[in-house]
Amino acid sequence: MKTPVIYWKLFVLLVSLGKVYSQTTNNFPLVNVNDSSAGIDVGTQKTYTTRVRLIATTPSSTFVPSVFQNDAVNFYQQTLGGSYAAVTGVVGTSGTSSTGQLIVDVVYNVLYSFTAMQNVGITDNQVTTEIGTYQAVIDGINDFGTTLKNFYVFETDSSVFVFSGSSICSAPGTNCTANTVCNETLSGVTVMCISACKKGYCQNNGTCEQASSATGPTCTCLSTADVWFLGTTCQTRVELWMVIVAAVLGFLLILAAIILACCCYVTKRRKKEKESGLYLTSEKTTTYTNKGYLDTEHGQITKVDAVPR
Ligand SMILES: *[C@@H]1O[C@H](CO)[C@@H](O)[C@H](O)[C@H]1NC(C)=O
Ligand SMILES: *[C@@H]1O[C@H](CO)[C@@H](O)[C@H](O)[C@H]1NC(C)=O
Ligand SMILES: *[C@@H]1O[C@H](CO)[C@@H](O)[C@H](O)[C@H]1NC(C)=O
Ligand SMILES: *[C@@H]1O[C@H](CO)[C@@H](O)[C@H](O)[C@H]1NC(C)=O
């Protein structure tokens, strides 16, 4: 029982010797495609959706979206190098805190011209520090706003804060060169065309290779003594027991097919034998009948009912 296992392991080792190179996370020794900038249409907009929470300071306060919008506009106009476009879609959802105060969750969009941001040279880090953290937004709206602070304060627990950018990669005017894929930092501004290898093209720890941007990526799949990965992106897991079950089933299927073929052959042969027997019989009958006919001509009728069967 032990010997076949050793032979098997030796076989797997020999097979794996063909691919001694390795690929660890974020290291792609077999990828020779440099990251490049994506082509982005002028007019493409980037939207940052933000959520903050306000707590009313006077009992009679009601939330007025336009008041919030005006104060927020003042802030966003002063940030990110003046590449600002608009604050839109201000929606406030009111509730009551445990101490009976009015609280309002405000969700709104800040729209920027993406090409304007690129021209000004905005970085991911700038986006994060200027508009992408709760403290920056609280300070900004309080500092640049005029009206809101008379009625509301911001909730200080930053877990209420949401900040997410729209996808430029999926915008209609954004293109990557052949054999590269678009990759972006959603809450920043970076949009690059990179090898699909760097975006998890090969699954299950397969090694990804892309010799140049003239060809697509290819995967060398992982295999161990009892597990293999198959498919273009190593997506299919095959285990030793599956192979054994498949082999046994295949063998049984072939056996069944052989038995069936034999049965068919025997049946056919028997039928044929039977058929040729009948043919002979009818020939003999004709002979006898003819004889009878001939004999009738000579005035002698031969008994024809003694036909051999
Ligand atoms: C990638 O960039 C490096 C450094 O700029 C350059 O030497 C190399 O030729 C480039 N490779 C390709 C395939 O363009
Ligand atoms: C991207 O491709 C579309 C469709 O082919 C084209 O209309 C658009 O001008 C391209 N954009 C850039 C920036 O190359
Ligand atoms: C792709 O984008 C993500 C952010 O969405 C970033 O963490 C990652 O480093 C990028 N990959 C490359 C290869 O630039
Ligand atoms: C892939 O590698 C990671 C890290 O080494 C490991 O945790 C994981 O189990 C591996 N997956 C497979 C399918 O081998």
TrEMBL record:
EGF-like domain boundaries: 194-235
Name of the protein described by the UniProt record: EGF-like domain-containing protein
Keyword terms of this UniProt record: Disulfide bond, EGF-like domain, Membrane, Signal, Transmembrane, Transmembrane helix
Signal sequence residues: 1-22
Domain of life per record: Eukaryota
Record-annotated disulphide pairs: C202-C219
Organism, as annotated: Ciona savignyi
Transmembrane segment boundaries: 240-266
